[in-house]
Hints:
The structure holds 2 protein chains of 2 kinds.
Chain A: H1 3-18, H2 21-51, E1 54-59, E2 71-72, E3 75-76, E4 90-95, H3 99-107, H4 115-135, E5 140-143, H5 148-165, H6 185-188, E6 222-225, H7 229-256, H8 277-316, H9 318-323, H10 329-361, H11 375-401, H12 405-410, H13 412-424, H14 435-438, H15 443-453, H16 457-462, H17 464-487, H18 489-492, H19 501-510, H20 518-538, H21 545-571, H22 575-578, H23 586-613, H24 618-632, H25 636-663, H26 669-682, H27 687-707, H28 711-729, H29 732-737, E7 745-747, E8 753-755, H30 757-775
Parallel strand pairs in A: 1-4, 1-5
Antiparallel strand pairs in A: 2-3, 5-6, 7-8
Helix pairs in contact in A: 1-10, 2-10, 8-10, 8-11, 8-13, 8-15, 10-11, 10-17, 11-15, 11-17, 20-21, 20-25, 20-26, 21-24, 21-25, 23-27, 23-28, 23-30, 25-26, 25-27, 25-28, 26-27, 27-28
Chain B: E1 2-13, E2 17-29, E3 33-38, H1 45-52, E4 60-65, E5 68-69, H2 74-79, E6 81-85, H3 96-106, H4 111-124, H5 140-152, E7 158-162, H6 170-185, E8 189-194, H7 197-203, E9 206-211, E10 214-220, H8 221-228, H9 233-246, E11 252-256, E12 259-263
Parallel strand pairs in B: 3-8, 3-9, 6-7, 7-8
Antiparallel strand pairs in B: 1-2, 1-4, 4-5, 9-10, 11-12
Amino acid sequence: MKLSNVKLIIGREIRDQLRDRRTMFMIFVLPVLLYPLLGLSLAQISQFVQEQVVAVIVVGAEQLKDLPPLLEDNRFFGELFDRPEESQQLRVMVLAEHSDVAQQAENTQQSEITQQSAEQTFQRLQEQAQAAVASGECDAALLFPPDFAQQLASFRNWATQRNRSGRGGRPTGHAPAANGAGLGVNDAAPVAPVADQDALPVGSHQPARAEATPSPDPPAPQLLTGASERSLIAERRLLDILRRWSELVGRRNLEALGVDPAVIRPIAVRTIDLADKQQVRKAVTWGKILPMLLVLWAMTGAFYPAVDLCAGEKERGTLETLLSSPAQRSEIVVGKLVTIILFSMVTAVLNLVSMAITGLTVLHQMPGMGPPPAAAALWLAAALLPVSSLFSALCLALAAFARSTKEGQYYLMPLMMVSLPLVILPFSPAFELNLGNSLIPVAGLILLLRSAIEGNYWQSLQYLLPVTVVTLLCCYLSIRWAIEQFNSETVLFRESEQFSIRLWLRHLIHTRRSLPTAGMAIFFAVMVLVARFFLSAILPSPTSSTALALTTTAVLAGVILAPAVALALLVTSDPAGTLLLKRFRLLPIMAAGAMAVVLHPLSMAAVSAIRWLYPSGGPITAQSQQFAELMIGTPLWLALLAFVLAPAVCEELAFRGFVLSGFWRPGKHWKAIIYSALLFGVTHAVVQQSLNAVLLGLLIGYIAVKTGSVWPGMAFHAVHNALKLTAVWLPEEVIERWPHLGLLLSRDTQPNYVFYWPAVLLSGALALGLLCYFLRLPHRESAETPCQPQQDMDYPTAIPASSGHL
Amino acid sequence: MIDVRGLTKHYSDLRRGQFVALCDVSFQSWPGEIFGLLGPNGAGKTTALRILSTVLRPTAGTALINGFDVVTQPDQVRRCIGFVSANTAVYDRMTGWEMVEYFGRLHGIPRSVLRPRMEELFARLNMHDCRDVLGAKMSTGMKQKVSVARALVHDPPVLIFDEATAGLDVLVARALLETIAELRQQGKCILYSTHIMREAEKLCDRIGILHRGRILALGTLEELRSQNGQDDLEELFFRLITEHDRQSGQPRCDDIGDQIALSTE
């Protein structure tokens, strides 16, 4: 690779992009305008939330004359707010019956107005209030039933009587408020006064004595609200008012009982701030926002230039011009990649700077918000290059695959769908920076950034290495993929074709070769994943051992084995060769079985390590326990069939047969092994199982490639599963009966026993020894291989059945 | 020189299945000669020329450009060819001068040498009107001139033209053909593909007629005429194609799974 050529290409691409108005707008103009506009809009909205006056209807307020004030001069009482002037944010409309009826109620004695007429009046007013709220004439309605004051008086009288009779304990049988508002009336309700030394302290529980009268129902005002934003604001404010008013009522009740109201707050908490709470809160808020924005803007800033530089160049016809120049493919890729990285970084920087300026000038007006911490700039700058590189390489590879600019833009959505969960995951409170999470691409980097912005430098330093390694590895793989795209003729010169299922199937059958393609292998894995997902949702969880065994066997056979065999028959001309069934030699099979035995302690240690790295959640642990119990109850023959043989046969034929063959290329065996192992892991639902499956898949895949046969892998898998089964079945009595076993292992909850480290080390050493046997198996290319460099590298060649080894 | 032997290229196409674009194509071209590759649309001309310019890789066969193999020595091949095609476009956001300069520098020409050469080239091709015009605003003729200048800036010994006059008006096409003829006089080895008979008649020293990926006839114009008893190239061309389509006993390239079988009846 000539650096001069790379520099030339970078210079040309940058100049080309700078002359594109669309790119300039997206990268330079949009960020400068977007954030100030957003900030101003947010500031306006926040004012709306704070200052919007809402209208509230109040019914039955005349009953409240003898209670702590709720209303004063047709407004809510100022003392019920943090600041009295906030009462102006609620416009009160007192709804009462016609004045003559109200006058009559004043002039005549209460007893002369029957309960029935009061209820009828209330019902009419209630209907009016409901209509007003529904029509939007008012935003909420607060209704006090006609017997509200009476109920409150009854409640107070009951409490007084209990107090005088010397009963202790809290009132029981309180029903929640009718409107579910949770006013806390019961919490503020008076407890029995401490009249003598034998009485219980406030709040203590004591079963009510048999002769105590039950408490009357607490009075419950009704709160009517609609679905509009204003109604929600009104509801929130009214609930706050009623909560405070309820406290005042409760205090008065206590005073009436001769109890100091202070007894309901026996504990006063004094907080001592070790740091500026406001600054810490801002750091936490910005620590969540800024890394996410960095990733999103880096991705967006990379995508459009990538599409223009690759798919657009293809579409305009200049790519062929460039390919016929002295510039090598790798130089072209690197040149374009560096250009895209630069634009990605500039986009991210401009957006973040614009946001910072907006924060300084606009957001500080909002409560709890303000500019980000100054140190955040340093951490973001450090993360900028790796984030931009990763997404630039990904975008370049995707854009190279597209035939046109239009098609390239369609690929943005899948990229967002894959990336957004990784970006959003760190927002979950349960998702913290630890070793396991730091190994997740993108999400780990965001967590690390967040930790640094919040000022947790020691924690950030601890996980800097794993995050860096994972990010760099992803960058490297993405760049490799991009280079492969540029080396693929079918990608560079793909033409538009009308998609027809009939044509596609006919093409598939007529052009089938001895091995499947990588696309077929991926298609199969995705099909398995989707089928398992839907089956897990549809099928009921097995409740018996037999059901578990039969379900497991049926799923393995129907979802994994059957599609693999069907695809091998349909799309390949050599199904037996595809599934690696042709070679059956006893020695490799026995060696693989022995490998499973000696590797068992190391395997169990790996399982423990994975569980430590990614601890299982409660539901998964419970389900695992349930399955383990069911497995214990399974008859031996059924257990061997369902948990030993079926997985070994079905999964090996599928993943080390069909999938491995799909990725196999001459001289690129490791790629096939790694990809088949990854897909094998992905099809397991639980993360812990997936990781374990990937590790085993690598080993079994290697054995399959070296032996050219799936049979040793089946033997390994079967023996491995059988030994895992003993972990479930191994009773304590066996360890007690064979005390020598106690030198090797001990009982544990998960995975039921663990090996001591000397046993693990010995296991590793023995496994290495057996691995040497497989390493020394001869690897000879077939007679067809020398012609392969001239063939189209997109088509796999057959793994010849005549040669016993690959 | 250009030495092509047994060149074969397969594609996989959804509609056509395994499609043979080139089957056992062989020809040679020498310095100071214009070899014409004549054939209808879809004959395989562009595929052959893309292989020679290292944009595509052959499925089988060999091709040597100035002694360098297109598969194993693509870098050396690209340094000694200039490739002009109807498919090779100009950059929309570069001027003519910038584009020629860009490719000149990719060929490793120092600035001190490149600038005077470009001045001479622009003068010879009468390109002053497109010197500072962006590619998007150029006419077809201007674009083709820029493509030719780009292909000539590094003074390659081998030149490949793939339907270079496509879309050009008569005047511009004639000027281009005259330029190509001048390049022959300078001793360049020129491979010129076209489907226009008159161009082949006027320009080419030797002609290879390509149809459905196969060479049907090869030789000078006089040789082809005498072999086929036909003076008019167009009639000769039609006769060959018609006979080929009807003929039996010709080698047939069949794709059988992973192998290519040459069979005769």
